Amino acid sequence: MSSSFGKAFRISTFGESHGGGVGVVIDGCPPRLALDPAVDIQPDLDRRRPGQSRFTTPRQEADRVEVLSGVFEGRTLGTPIGLLVRNKDARPSAYEEMRDLFRPSHADYTTEAKYGVRNWQGGGRASARETVGRVAAGAVARKLLREAAGVEVLAWVSRVQAIHAKVDPETVAKEEIEANPIRCPDPAAAQEMADLIDEIRGRGDSLGGVVECVARGVPAGLGAPVFDKLDAEMASAMLSLPAAKGFEVGSGFEGTLLTGSEHNDAFVPGPDGRPHTPTNRSGGVQGGISNGEPIVCRVAFKPTATVGVEQQTVDRAGNAVSLAARGRHDPCVLPRAVPVVEAMLCLVLADHWLRQRAVDVLPEIG
Asked: How many Å apart are CA 29 and CA 143, to the nearest integer?
């Protein structure tokens, strides 16, 4: 079992979808960081919470964070930070008729195959509600990165099915992303996406797509080759998310269409005295180490597995049955995945920023 992530900045999430609550314990956050839960944590949870628009599940959860430990008089103590969000609108009885069925493309069968037991109420630990703890911890990591290193992390919906947004990662602003409920900063594409989600939702079906993310102001030198390369840790973080099926950094798979001379990022003298690359096909990471350019990555999310369309499955006894799933689910996970993707990148960067502080302790060689 693995519910922990990170080394220097380490988190452990807990809770099930329809249990008493969900949350996280953060270990390794430096002391004396000013932290106001209402200002620094709650806004990101509000962006992730259900029921915020017609494009999300109608489950109504305020997702108010409670700080159980690790913060005193507005500052972190350097001790474990315990954060809890209580479940208020859980309806486990809604899943009673599916307790002995394996829902297509869910973790029902695989969880039972591994553990021999599972919480069938809304997916239990495999539910996307587990990401509440990630977002809460990511908000603390975001504050640390901003205050200590001047790093900014933003994500947005870049594609829904075949509708692509045109967004410049170097200049996109949070206000543009949050200007519509799709969280796509391209207004024309956002409207197309909204119309398509409405259409598919009306059929009882769902859609997938891509969330893109940028981290600006990341210093050069983060990452720990060979096995903890920065992009490898980013991939691990993103692919651990519910419904995530693909990850790219920089040019990603499109880079395979170029020659080496076309793909290489040339170095030129930078205004701050360090090398700079006018292009950023590397996505800010070379050799598994950040190079000081914006880190750009993309995460592909599959269509929501729970749909109202009748599908074939089997029950625990091996009998073939038909299922038209019921419950409260997002017709498209992408708008609410935006703060989750941001959180995971913040966690990776905070972890590696602290790890680099432990490595870079001797004077530079002249």
From this structure: 11
